[in-house]
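Hello forum,

I keep getting stuck at the same step: I have a sequence, I want structure tokens, and every attempt I make locally crashes halfway through. Rather than fight my setup again tonight, could one of you with a working pipeline run this one for me? It's a single chain of 258 residues.
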Amino acid sequence: MKPRVLIVDDEAPARSRLRTLLADIEADCPHQLVGEASGAQQALDAIDALHPDLLLLDVQMPGVTGIDLAAQLARREDAPAVVFVTAYDEYALKAFEVHALDYLLKPVRAARLAGAITRAATLRAQARQRIAALAADLQPARNHFSVQARGRIVLVPVTDVLYCKAELKYVTLRTREHEYLVEESLTSIEEELGAHFVRVHRNALVARAAISGVERAAQAVDETGERAQESWQVVLRGLDERLPISRRQWSVIRALVR
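Reply #2:
Ran it on my machine without issues. Output:
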């Protein structure tokens, strides 16, 4: 069965060269070119629609890089294999070699392209694990969340998320305009993105940069007429909603506000 190939590169001339090379090697390296994408979000849409077996993925793309996109794909069970297309210098190429991932150095040569397609087609599962390891080395913290929205995969920038809140087995990501659900734990998000988020409660993380202050929560009165212990909540820029601050985290949040 011919591997289905998707080209992902933000530069039109680079995509055109890969198209030409793929046509040139068709006889010796059977494959099917199913489409092209000029960026990460377009690539995700194409992957969901076209189900490629292999991505020819540019490393240096504006916004969401090829490394970041590959890291997002490595989380998916149905992820295609990835062959990086790169103009990286020799130091970076050694990083690829350490993880036994294939890469194509621009300008791409036909023989190298054919060999990469052949190898990647037989090592799809192993390639996904190696991509995850490579992404962790070259980019320790992701800069986007991969979420399901209206039947498609969407990349939500970490910097757009005001808070993450645990809801049963899901976590709600809240931006100024939308809410998204992800099947991750608060603990894993906190461990990876602790420089961006701070815990305010056992079930909530908030973006450090979004904190504009704190305010006292309304004090409830019990049946004896006694007021409950004073509590505080965090105020986030661009959001009317308030999140409670636990007593354990109060000193941390107060220090950030000061």
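The helical segments are 12-25, 40-50, 66-73, 90-98, 110-122, 124-138, 186-193, 247-257. If your local run keeps crashing, start a new thread with the error log.
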